[in-house]
Amino acid sequence: MRWHRQRGEGPLLRWGRRHGRALEAATGGPAKCCHPEERTHDHMTKCAICNSETASPKTIPVRMTAITAGEDLRMETNEAHLRALDMAVHLLGHINAFRALSEVPDYLGRRRARYAMTLIMLDELTSLMELMKECERAVTERSPEVLVKGFFSPEHKQERAQRALDEIGKSEALFLKVKRTLGREPSAIDFALFKDRLRQMDGNVFSTVERALRYDWSLGGDSLPSDEEIDMLFMAIELNVRGAAEFAYQWAMANEFDIDFRLATVNSKDGCDGRKERGYWVTMPL
Questions:
Q1: Which of 286, 118, 123 is nearest to 213 (CA)?
Q2: pTM for this model (two decimals)
Q3: Cα–Cα distance between 85 and 200 in angstroms, integer?
Q4: How far apart are the first and last CA of the chain?
Q5: Residues 71-92 as b or e (16 or more Cβ within 10 Å = b)
Q6: Which among 19, 13, 67 is positioned nearest to 252, based on CA atoms?
Q7: Whole-angstrom distance, CA of residue 172 vs CA of residue 164
Q8: Cβ(128)–Cβ(15) under 8 Å?
Q9: What number of other Cβ atoms are within 10 A of residue 143's Cβ?
């Protein structure tokens, strides 16, 4: 099967590029830099991530409110961006956990635990992608609020998960990363096995996780994905979560929200994808 590459970095990174232009239009000027540690040496006033001018942030009160009922998600646009940042940081914690599970090879339960972890991350990423798309729409249309119909509805989960798998597999950055990791071009990155499993469980990720983790008394359960398939899905998730975190953070800083931390990575031994430079994600005080 021929694999078609889609130019770009992934749906959430492409979202960030478009969203940055909308942010600039909405705030009346270029986005203010949120990555002071990334400024290039030859242009000390430029950020190497967002290529924007730096500025000293001021703070305005934007708070997240508890959501306890209903199938739809409705909130003020600024709060929705903070929610997206909060979800992305939460997912970076899952990425750290996956890396820790992957540090030591060939122990009992390694593949099973990693598979379950990728399914949980996929479920969270699906919701994050829906939220960020609606954030983009709200900014483009200058809407004061974000509305996501059926955001908490179990009936929509399978459709959203299938769509997310289709989108995250079409990134050129993912293709190059997988090629670098495997040492060869992948024949396909379509996540077909994961789509089939979700179909069997009607999109219920946690039923799939439970089935993967529990002992199978029937001795006829589904086989686990290969380590290579699990790693490819993890790489796709990591690329998109990182993009979501960086651009949601950029939005918050450009709009002068009260953010008291920055995202960074600490070095460690090589993780599952052999990239020392990424390390483990941490939050550090400003």
A1: 118
A2: 0.75
A3: 32
A4: 49
A5: eebebbbbbbbbbbbebbbebb
A6: 19
A7: 16
A8: no
A9: 14
- Residue 199 in tokens: 């179909």
- Of 227, 69, 57, the C-alpha closest to 151 is 69
- How many CA atoms lie within 13 Å of 91's alpha carbon, on the beta-carbon side? 29
Amino acid at 13: L
Tokens 């709009």 belong to 255
Q: Which residue has the tokens 């069997």?
A: 200
| E-only strand ranges, 84-180 | 145-148
**124-154 pLDDT, tens per residue?**
999 999 999 999 999 999 999 999 998 988 8
Please compute the mean of the pLDDT values over residues 254-264 and round it to a whole number. Answer: 87
Q: Which two tokens stand for residue 45?
A: 């006033």
Q: What's the pLDDT tens digit per position in 169-187? A: 777 777 777 777 777 776 6
